Amino acid sequence: MPSPFPGMDPYLEHPAWWRGVHHRLITYIADTLSAQLPERYVTEIDERLYVVEAERDLYPDVLVKRRPKPRATRKTKPAASGAVAVESDPALRVSLEPQTLPQSFIEIRLAAGPGRAVTVIEILSPTNKATGSQGREQYLAKQKELLRSTLHLVEIDLLRGGKHTVAAPRQELRRRADWDFLCSLHRACAKECETWPVTLRQRLPRIAVPLTEGDADFVLDLQAMLDRCYDAGRYERQIDYRREPAVPFIADDAAWADALLREKKLRS
Q1: Is 84 strand, coil or helix?
Q2: Nearest-5° angle of CA 232, CA 108, CA 204?
Q3: Parallel, antiparallel, or unpaired for β 206-209 and 218-221?
Q4: d(Cα 12, Cα 15) in Å, to the nearest integer?
Q5: Disulfide engineering: 194 pairs with which of 157, 172, 185, 250, CB 3.0-4.6 Å?
Q6: In angstroms, rounded to a whole number, what is the distance separating the alpha carbons of residues 196 and 29?
Q7: CA-CA distance, 31 to 102, in Å (whole number)?
């Protein structure tokens, strides 16, 4: 059963599902590239670690609770049996270490020789878009390094929440288009970005993935990749469309989404 939404399903942004979606997208895109690129290229899935503050609960399997303030102790009268209350010995308190979260990305490399990298494909996650997080700072530092390199950089942002992060300048884009989801391509040594801004009501785009000079761009159908993720994850069995998504709808999108989900008989 396909998603009821024509493009990105905003319910998939929920922390309970996003990591699975991210892993599947990375895998399916890499597999598609490996199967269809010319033989002189190979595709690798690599991983980097992001430091996340212990108090940030970005994913459901990372749960950190604050210890409540100790109540003032008071003396307890002996019970009828003669027993008295026993207090614990003094505890040594230590701070939690920052956690590290892995994030996968895709590299297209030349197969011959040491396998020189040609293109990097990033799919953004909440830690990349969280204001003030070390994960965001680390991502932006890596992005800056890639923009100065001879590598092509493709960034795919399917998250409505968080701060604008892709390399394409937000202010210039806002003057020309509205979007909920954004793909950005910076070709090596270029002074501009190619972008594919789409709204909640639109199909995800087919984007260009550049290779080395002399080879035509590979056209990647993002909607086909997401549809495959949705089917494989059986998200139709898990998502309750009667509720609001993790990032609430805004403006006219709330009424549009409600009508769509009623039409699909997912709301009454």
Answers
A1: coil
A2: 45
A3: antiparallel
A4: 8
A5: 185
A6: 17
A7: 20
- Distance, in Å, from the CA atom of 172 to the CA atom of 166, rounded to the nearest integer, reads 13
Sheet of strand 41-52, all strands in order from the earlier edge strand to the far edge = 41-52, 99-110, 117-123, 152-157, 181-186, 194-198
State how far the alpha carbon of 254 is from the alpha carbons of 138, 153, 157, 245, 261, in Å: 34, 34, 21, 10, 11
| Locus of tokens 């899935």 | 45
Question: 0.85 cut: is pTM over it?
Answer: no
11, 215 in Cβ contact below 8 A?
no
Closest CA to 4 of 180, 255, 236, 221: 236
**Partners of 120 in the β-ladder:** 107, 153
Q: Which two tokens stand for residue 10?
A: 């905003």
Tokens coding 156: 């795919």
Instruction: List the single range of 21-25, 132-136, 225-229, 232-236 with lowest mean pLDDT.
Output: 132-136
Residue range 230-249: average pLDDT? 97
Report the interhelical angle of 222-233 vs 15-36 (nearest 10°).
130
CA-CA distances (angstroms) from residue 234 to 173, 228, 230? 35, 10, 6
Half-sphere CA count of 10, side-chain side, radius 13 A: 23
pLDDT tens-digit profile of 54-66? 544 444 433 333 4
What CA–CA distance (Å, rounded) separates 167 from 140?
9
Tokens of 203: 């199909």
